[in-house]
Amino acid sequence: MFSFFRKKVFLIDHLEGFIDIHNHILPGIDDGAKTVADSIAMIKSFSEFGVEHFVATPHIMHNYYPNNAQSIYAALDNLKNALLAENLKHISIEASAEHMIDDNFETLLDSGKVMPMKNDYLLVEMSYLQPPINFEEAIIKTVSNNYYPILAHPERYSFLRSRLQKYREYKKNGIYFQMNLLSLGDYYGKEVHRLLNELLDEDLIDFLASDIHNMVQINALKKITVSKKNIERLFPIINNTIETFY
What is d(CA 130, CA 128) in angstroms, rounded to the nearest whole number? Predict the structure, then answer.
């Protein structure tokens, strides 16, 4: 009887048919799913609210997660076999990577060992605390190699808080921004949530994704409610993500 006064809606109720372009559901190769069973549990949970298409993006991070095409596709094949065994043939999953811009990133670019997504988009990240000294050069080299850099979770970089002009400069330099769905709640803290809203106000977000690592995060995602105003602002970004990567 009080539905008339309800000002917020559950985020997941508006994600049916979405394609998740940033997640850590491949088993055993980074800080995401540890086992195939973990991966399957996460995928089944996503499918409960209509998300059945994925681009898996395990970390490529020098000296921490030294993944490459061989390790990533091996994990993908392992998961795909498990999906068939579980009769989850309707699940679509491809593989790319989340590339840390570190001292090895440009070497990967030069040797053609990066793992882009569809249409040559390349998902990149950096330290949350400070930018890498080679960030500008790495982005220039990414673009010169005919890739379109997508900066993962721009709202989570603490050194960029209160520096909206820097975000504008990144955009002018050809960087796309991918927001984490969990940032729409308080999962990462109120400062991240505040910055996210500023980026939305500036119309700087291009794509959405989950960046899910485990079931704890999926359960947190299921609880997120957003204002009707924010849902309306998210619709074009949701649609752009689907249209670009589906």
Answer: 6
Whole-number average pLDDT of the chain: 95
User: Distance between CA 37 and CA 41 in Å, rounded?
Assistant: 6
* CA count, 13 A, side-chain hemisphere, 68: 10
Distance in angstroms (rounded) separating the CA atoms of residues 144 and 226 = 39
pLDDT at position 137: 95
Q: So where are the chain's domains?
A: 3-245
- % of the chain at pLDDT higher than 90: 92
Please write the tens of the pLDDT for every residue from 21-66.
Answer: 999 999 999 999 999 999 999 999 999 999 999 999 999 999 999 9
Among 8, 76, 3, which residue's Cα sits nearest to residue 43? 76
CATH architecture assignment, domain 3-245: Alpha-Beta Barrel (3.20)
State the Cα–Cα distance between residues 33 and 41, nearest whole angstrom.
10
Nearest to 94 by CA among 149, 49, 54, 127: 54
Mean pLDDT of 205-229: 96
**Sign of the alpha-carbon dihedral angle for 127, 132, 136, 142:** negative
Is-above-0.85 flag for pTM?
yes
Where helices occur in the chain by DSSP H, the ranges are 36-48, 69-85, 105-110, 135-144, 164-172, 190-201, 215-223, 228-245
Residues 113-124 as b/e (b if ≥16 CB within 10 A, e otherwise) read ebbbbeeebbbb
